[in-house]
Amino acid sequence: MKKRIMAVTLAAVMAVSMAGCAGSKPAGTKAAETKAASNEGSSQKADTADKDTADKDAAGTEAAGAGKADDAGAVKEGAEDKGQTDFPKKPIQIICPVKAGGDTDYNTRVIAQYLSKYLDVNVVVTNVEGGATILGMQQVLDGEPDGYTMVINGLDAYIPNMMGTTDITIDSFKTVGIPLFDNTTVLVANKASGYESIKDVVERTQAAPGTIEYGMKIGAANQVYGIAMNQEWGAQFKPMDIGNNAAKMTALLGQQTDTAVLAYALAKDYFATGEFQALCLLGSEKNELLADVPLPSEYGLKDIDCSKWFWLGVHPDTPDEVVDILSDALEQVTEDPEFVKTMEDNYLTVRYIAKKDAQDYADQFYQDTLVPYKDEFLSTSSK
């Protein structure tokens, strides 16, 4: 019995011992697992550290790239600024959209001469005649918007648009300015005609309508002037398409026309010799430089403003900074005593109107002087 109890007790102890062995691991295995866990944690920390380092490197690279981009932008901006301040770096061309030899051509060449002085580059004049000044204007619009090609024009710039042959006007460009005014448009007759005054001429046209000829150029502003004289004075001039100013002077000398309008300076030699007679000044006010030439109002007739101005413009996409440089130089020209004297010797008035103000002036002048006679102008031009 005693042996049996001991056997049972021994079996129980062994069972407990085996159960303990089954529920636990050997010390070596546990140490290995602890070491493995430790290594895994270290590996995770290392991975995290590597990731942080990579992120910092990437951020640094990105920042460096951004810095380089900023530097590149600054360099580019600096280059652009330098390019603007360097303007002009080569010769500039002024397109004169009429034939050489007239007052517009002469005045353009004088303006170009003095612009060269203040822009420190050559400024050359190129005559591009045709299409009632449109060919020259179109050439500028077809060119580069860099300020190296300008165009000069005046009231004639509106005529083709008024006729419906083009959309181009002064408003198609960026205006540089108007530096010069010509209040010397005179109605001229050959002295041999025997006319005593503008009133005498008007009365003769009324007595015999269509017998006294008025020489002009179809499609030009001086065609409108003839219409204005007939309407405002009750005159009956017979219009004759002669051509440009040189052709009109030739016709007057040969008595192939009775009258024509000219800039006084163009015919001053013939006034001096007595071959031509200035019947009246076609302007809104007296010109002190032409004190002996009467206004129509001095004979009881309405004054008709046929004065001229000379406008310069560039391609509409030309940078404003470039337009400013050109406009400032043009203003300096008008302040040059030698330029002023040269122009006054030709009875012209030097006065500067810049950019948008000049464009507004031109548009208003067109509305006041051409638009009132548009319907008759279109009807006579189409015949």
Automatic annotation (TrEMBL):
A Pfam family assignment: TctC
InterPro entries reported for this sequence: BUG, Bug_dom1
Gene3D superfamilies membership: Bordetella uptake gene, domain 1, Periplasmic binding protein-like II
Keywords recorded for this protein, A-Z: Signal
Biased composition (Basic and acidic residues): 47-59, 68-86
Secretion signal span: 1-22
Region (Disordered): 22-86
Family, per entry: Belongs to the UPF0065 (bug) family.
Protein name: Tripartite tricarboxylate transporter substrate binding protein
